[in-house]
Amino acid sequence: MILTTSRLPCRSNPDLFFAPDGQHTGTPLYNARVESARALCHGCPERIPCRDRGRALGATGVWGGEDDIDRVEAGSSIRSQRWRIAA
Ligand code: SF4
Question: Does residue 9 fall inside a structural domain?
Answer without folding.
Answer: no
